[in-house]
Amino acid sequence: MNSVDRMLHDSDEKYRTLFENAADGILLMSADGKTFVSNKAFARMHGYTVEEISGMRLSDLDAPETARLAPERLRQLLDRKTLTFEVEHYHKDGHVFPLSVTCSVIRVDGQPFFQGFHQDLSERKRAEEALKNAQRLESIGVLAGGIAHDFNNLLMGILGNVELVSTRIADEKALEFLQAIEENINRAKALSTQLLTFAKGGKPVRNTGRIQPCLRSTAEFALSGSNVSCLFDLPDDLWPCLFDGNQIGQVIENLVINAKQAMPEGGTVVISAANVSLREGDVPLLSEGDYIKISIKDRGVGISRDVVGRIFDPYFTTKQTGSGLGLAVSFSIIKKHNGHIAVESAPGEGSVFHVFIPAWRDAVEDVVERPLRAEKGMGRILLMDDMEAIRAVLEQGLAGAGYSVTATKDGREALERFRLGLEEGKPFSAVVLDLTIPGGMGGRETARELRKLDATVPVFVASGYSEDPVLSDPKEFGFTAGIGKPFVLSEIIGLLNRHLHGAERT
After folding, report:
1. pLDDT single digits (tens) 115-144
2. Are 167 and 400 spatial neighbours (Cβ–Cβ below 8 Å)?
3. How much is the pLDDT for 139?
4. Three-state DSSP state, 474
5. Residue 234's closest CA among 206, 214, 208, 259?
6. 272 strand-pairing partners
7. Main-chain dihedrals φ then ψ at residue 415, nearest 5 degrees
8. Is the peptide bond prior to 486 cis by the omega test (within 30 degrees of 0)?
9. pLDDT tens readout for residues 74-104
């Protein structure tokens, strides 16, 4: 029996009971640091039994940096009698984890012993890292959103002109070239959409419904034509949730494609979902409540511990091809749905991503509007956009669809034209307003003033990006509906036709 064992053996029953049953990991160590005795909690947090750990030295558990600092900390303890610090220890399975230690010097029969209380900091560190990651994404998102806004306006002008040219030429070879241009524009649009999605203010447009169809159709599409199959475990009794189908589809697509690429020789991706009720603290950064937990599991190459903490960082990638945006965008989307995304992985053992989305147990499913149709229309349209190229494209496109268009470059000019139309007895059938006008009156303020002149005229908002949530809930801000740039002519024509069908205005 060593000196530490004797000290514990000779102590009274109350101390021994406290030592054995404490929630904190406790160890008693000799002054020379060579022998120690631990309680059950200390052994358990390291993955050992008390019997297994009893023959070890503390130096067997210390990670390199902790071992380097140990002699100095022992000296400080003898001087100060009490010291609180953080250490890193090896778990039985080999991974390193952080602990908080409050250590003090006690004396028995004049001999000094060290008594340490240990708390596992793994969950707290993960929560702190998740918060830092969210803050990093938010700051980068501000820049990304500004770039994407201007980029979308440029794409809008290019795409619109390509559409107009396509209707005016018959040469098949020229049409092929135009189609290739349009395909590249659509790729650029997809990249811009990813930037906008994690940009600050890129609020999801959410509807209440069941998520199973979105999970199934997105995964099947992402894996079509590949050597990877998909196995679904999606119970019929999953609770409804409030989600943006396009954005959640983007998350699932990113995760499924990652799983596919992790299994180059082929395999199976397992997608499961379950109803879970979480208590406070069960999952970092999630409040207590009901959630849908979606798990996407592969048997691929896995992710090493030194990389797994960075996979949600924007532009971080281990692939030779790839933008490094997929997981960063997915993280941002889920955060804006008030949910959380996490990963479990190890090299050679595959990965499983867990996505939590708040459930609405008693919600009634929303009725989805029928698709936009591009048919011939009629009526006077007042258009406001600060970019001349966009005004020109929409004037031409809407005129070709049967509308008469008056184009203005800012809100004040639009209001004057609207007043003039009322005075002359030629009111506008509808108004389309760009949301953001640098240095001028934007769409939201213009809509408020228009409503004072005519409370019933349909007013539509269009934007490439804004921090304002107008596009996600246009009616809340006085608009009839909204449309995001870049859009094709058939979309804006269909939007006008749908809302003006049967209208008496001409």
Report:
1. 899 999 988 888 887 777 667 666 666 666
2. yes
3. 67
4. helix
5. 214
6. 233, 295
7. -65, -40
8. yes
9. 888 888 888 999 999 999 988 999 999 999 9
